[in-house]
Specification:
The protein is α+β, with helices and mostly antiparallel strands and 241 residues long. It has 7 helices and 4 strands; from the N terminus they run ααααβααβββα. Helix 3 packs across helix 4.
């Protein structure tokens, strides 16, 4: 004989089995990986940009050369026609004198144009050199953005100049501070663990520039500082040429 309690238990089990609870889970969104750019691709890109800029400068040079030549021919022809006209109308030596005077004026004008053209060529050479340095700076900046070893080597060279110091403070820009913190353990080994090295932020420093302070002095170096110094030295050399 089936008891009432057994019937109730079976009913509860049946109803429980009929109920299904669904839990909606969110699938992780696929994140496209950032493209990896090799050093060779970065250098090729910079070289291509440099060649494009050089081609533009050469086209401008050719166009200016052609324009100056056309203007020189036009001025010379005008002087010749005016001189002959004056000589024909007057029938005197005055016409020939005017012609000779116009020729001299034309020669002087041509000389000034040639000097202006030579000055422009020098300026274009300066611009090309500056462009080359700028592309190199941009390449190195992108390299330091992606390569922690390149960043470490920059600081490493600065710290090595303080071999006999006991306490050093490495100042970085706010942008680079977190990345340098990850290198702190390696930085302590540069001088064999004989010096205490602390990290600080200097808001005045440009990205990828660093300042090393010690009890006896300080030095600043890095990409931006090195680029500005090299550009200034190049400008001095070009001015002396």
């Amino acid at each position: 004989m089936i008891s009432l309690s057994n019937v109730i238990k079976r009913k509860i089990v049946f109803e429980r089995d009929q109920k299904t609870i669904f839990h909606q889970t969110s699938s992780p969104q696929a994140v496209d990986p950032e493209p990896i750019v090799s050093y060779e691709e970065m250098m090729n890109e910079g070289q291509e940009r440099l060649q494009q800029q050089q081609a533009v400068l050469e086209q401008q040079e050719q166009a200016q050369r052609a324009a100056l030549e056309q203007e020189r021919i036009a001025v010379l022809e005008e002087a010749r026609q005016q001189g002959y006209a004056d000589g024909f109308e007057s029938g005197q030596q005055a016409g020939q004198n005017v012609y000779q005077q116009r020729i001299e004026e034309t020669n002087q004008f041509t000389h000034r144009l040639e000097q202006m053209f030579a000055d422009r060529i020098v300026m274009m050479e300066d611009e090309l050199c500056a462009l080359s340095l700028q592309l190199t700076h941009q390449f190195l900046e992108r390299l330091h953005d992606t390569d922690e070893e390149a960043l470490y080597q920059t600081i490493h060279k600065l710290i090595l100049q303080f071999r006999d110091r006991e306490k050093l403070i490495v100042y970085t820009s706010a942008e680079d501070f977190e990345r340098v913190v990850l290198l702190e353990e390696r930085l302590h080994t540069i001088l064999g663990g004989t010096a205490t090295i602390s990290l600080r932020i200097d808001p005045e420093l440009a990205a990828r520039d660093f300042r090393i302070d010690s009890e006896n002095g300080a030095i600043t170096g890095g990409l931006s500082t090195g680029y500005d110094l090299l550009l200034a030295q190049l400008s001095e050399v070009l001015q002396d040429v």
